[in-house]
Amino acid sequence: MPRSFKNEKDPWIQMLEIKNLHACVEDNEILKGVNLTIKAGEVHSIMGPNGSGKSTLAQVLAGRDTYEVTQGEILFKGKNILDMEPNERACEGMFLAFQYPVEIPGVGTAYFLRAALNAVRKHRGQEELDAADFLEYVKDKMSVVDMDAKLLQRSVNEGFSGGEKKRSEIFQMAVLEPSMAILDETDSGLDIDALKIVADGVNSMRNPERSFLVITHYQRLLNYIVPDYVHVLIDGRIVRSGGKELALELEEKGYSHINAPMAGSTA
Amino acid sequence: MPLEQSTKNMIQSNEQPASESELTIDQWQSQEYKYGFTTDIESETFPPGLDEDVIHKISAIKNEPDWLLQWRLKAYRHWLTMTEPKWHNIHYTPIDYQKISYYSAPKSDKDRPKSLDEVDPILLETYEKLGIPLQERAILAGVAVDAVFDSVSVATTFKAKLAEVGVIFCPFSEAVTEHPELVKKYLGSVVPYSDNFFATLNSAVFTDGSFVYIPKGVKCPMELSTYFRINAASTGQFERTLIIADAGSEVSYLEGCTAPMRDEHQLHAAVVELVAFDDARIKYSTVQNWYPGDKDGKGGIFNFVTKRGKCAGRSSHISWTQVETGSAITWKYPSCILLGDNSVGEFYSVALTNNHQQADTGTKMIHIGKNTRSTVISKGISAGFGQNTYRGLIKINKGAENARNYTQCDSMLIGDKCGAHTFPYIEVKNSTAQMEHEASTSKIGEDQMFYCNQRGINTEDAVSMIVNGFCKKVFRQLPMEFAVEAQKLLEVSLEGSVG
Amino acid sequence: MIELMQEQDTYSAVFARMETETLDGGPEALLSLRKDAMQHFEELGFPTTKDEQWLYTNVSAIAKTTFCPATRPDVAVDAATLERESFAGCGFHRLVFVNGFFASELSDTTELDDKVTVISLTDALKQQPDTVMAHLAQYADYKTHAFAALNTAFMEDGAFIHVPKGVVVDKPIQLLFITVPNNETSNEPIVVHPRVLIITGESSQVTVLESYVGLGEQVYFTNAVTEIALGENAVIDHYKVQRESTKAYHIATMQLNQQRASNGASHVTSLGGDIVRNNINVVLDGEGCNCNLSGLYIPRGKQHVDNHLLVDHAKAHCDSREFFKGILDDDAHAVFTGKIIVRKDAQKTDGKQTNRNLLLSDSARVDTNPQLEIFANDVKCTHGATIGQLDDDALFYLKTRGIETEAARSLLIYAFASEILDEIKIEAVREQVNNILLDRLPQGDRFRGFKGLQ
Lengths: 267, 499, 454
Description:
Chain A is α/β, with parallel strands linked by helices. Helices cover 36% and strands 28% of the residues of chain A.
């Protein structure tokens, strides 16, 4: 995997820098000083037990206002994004594959995605696509996750099975071509076949200019999407970082083992 | 509160010139009821109060024949024995029926305008403000308009052109004098004078409205349209509409409603009767945007309306479409009596309640004939402190072999202080009936907004996308230009309710 | 009341006798569990139609019949029957039970992954009593459900399946329950209480098929209980194909408890039985669960089929779907009760119920009863029910295209059913049900091999 991609012309070789990030919801601090740097082209995985703050981190990165950032900063391609709206961050190239994708009845997936793509393209100074061009454009992308074209005609996520929802998230990612993709438990609730499709989709999109933050609850996913780094998030802090072998250690010994000796330390 | 927080964030971000978001929640909230102007014209208005004398006077002004006066009086006397219904899920301060003026007409009515040129220019200006396609725009849009201002019809366009094919489209009072035999035959034939408290009151005091007759085999060459407007203070509006579609005919009829902003509540109690004979089709669409009252629930129209259609003939077809965004209180159940074999009744509704608005609306489909079919699609949207109730009755009578009904009834909640309620009543007395009922309640909120935002779509686009998606099945039933209007109306009515 | 007492007394007497003779083999805890269950059954008695949960299903025929406990039968199951019923050639792992007793000579689990346990409950109680007792009767509620209590008191044998963490079982595991007359000469009604316990670990995946087959046309009573404890992120596809004798009574309880992000599916096909009741209870006890319940019932004659579903959304972000279809002929009676409970904390619940019925005769009857009980404020729940007859317009249309009445009717019935057949993901099982349906349809042969009608 391209770990140390270097490009002198590329000003944002540091794709994402999270510095001492604190966030709370209703006076309850959930993130208690997260530090994490992701370089362009890297795949990082965050694991951790229930309630450790994994999903909160994903939502804060995408700009969810339920959470209040009380300290720290988030630099995305060198820019501080804390004051940006979620749609501005999206236009800058931040993508979040939701743990629970939201249904929007009556709004066709194709219509929705074209609105999204055109918002992003407009921001990038590209021409907006009309319906015909758009359909041409997404045709290839559908094969990435083995998507049925019928799904495009259905309302966004409405009546999708669990697996279809997750696949649709990866499909949307393929369409929007983000530079930073955050996958929030995209593997949860999938059977083995769907898991492989999702993982293949992600792997096919790995390239030196795109980074991934893969949040998962279950080690199994990392057999299919092999990360460059694994971080353990416990109680709002990254308590340990390592290579992919860390995931196997976790699998074997559990989080309690990690927590006890390492408490208080940061990556 | 996350919602408030987001509002704040939006405002702040808007202060930065580089910001992407152009329309802020703040700006939305500052937009108010767009149709809330009053018109300063001379009116002849009765003093408030109701007794037999008032009814005599209304009848006299309109030069009505004695049978109609007697009918009104019969209704009035019956009304005195009735009490206001209480079964509905709406709450309001009692209406003092003696404080309402039962007649108000622009002075110029004394010598009615013979053509549009004679209509008071200030009135025309009012309609301009309302965006009614009364003149050129009307011609462009191909819409024939009967405009009802307070209690009387002021102008009917395209009368001549319609007359060529035999279509009668005129103010109700004109029909009483010009076509008494039709009025006498059908008035009260669908909604009898004793039907319910508000319909009975209307029968006693109705002042004007529209009358439509489509002769046998005629397909009405254009959309017919009525705009209602309540202008004078302390007046009630009691119009009555009667549409008769003779065998094999077809008509599409639209009504729009607005009223000025006033602090006190105003009563609107209308009656609409439709009759469709063999193979006739009537499509009746309403875009109701009466003044809903202010943010604290002060003022606004009390809208108690009885609308009913009779599919009298074989294979006749009546379709109701309504977009209800106005009024402090909406109380209406456009219904179909499916008498003729193979007749079809439809009801498509979007009802929106924001701030302190309340709606109790739905339909009744009464299946009497064989192979009768009905479809009910209801979409309720509640925001602010709004309360939205769907109340529907599907009744399959004993002789209604192979009757079919499909009901879909969805509610959307915006925010957590509003309410949605569903009361479906189903009475089936014939075992061959096929009934299908679907219901859902969902909440639009931060989740959907955040999802759209995360994909790069801004808040303004996201709201209209989500709401229009929800209402799609109903908007599809409206004629094109009104579908656009309805969409805009919803967006305006919802402003400030989503963060 | 006196009559009811007598009905229970029969079971009490049998229990008292068995307690000393046969039931004392297992762990001590098991015996006290049985006693407790028996006590609850004695208190509960058989349900009557006055009971809200049994409003449309009258089990007095079961209560009044004196069933004797099944004994290990001396009638052999012939090779041809076994081959047909066990989908020979498909490589399913299987346990076979005859009259409730485990028949090891008919079973085959040789191809199973070593990490997976598929053994009879009796063996499991001997080999790993602690694991079994930690789960047995922990899910299926015998304290308020008479039939579950009866099973718990009398369960003789059954299946125990354990799939550990991360293991994906390649082929379906079939549990084949065959009922034959107690012996060749006797036609005495017997009762069997099969018990199934399935435990799955995190991120595991398994498909289980329960087949119930009655050989012959005798009266008997199957009172089954299946408990499934589905681990985090685990997947189970559970199928039941019920082809009891048309004189048999089949009362079954399936209790599925799901942990976080798990995926549970159950599909029930009801073909046989005189009185049939499927209780399907699901508790979604972790966030992000998916639950998919579906079923097809095709009663005819005087058959009575009752599907009674309860999905309890205890945690947020869970989706559940109930999709049942019935085709009723003659004097058949079907009941569907689908209840969704959404607990206070179960925000973002998405629940959907659909029940569609096709009546082929004027005397067939359906009572369908979708229910929602919602205590959370941010949920989406829908329910839809239809009861209808074949569409005259569609029939007429097909006829104008040259298809004769009988074939046109069959085509429409088949089209109605095919949507639910598609829910069966095991091809061999789908074929089996498909063929049974086609056998019943006039000119059904014409549609054999048709694919993609919907």
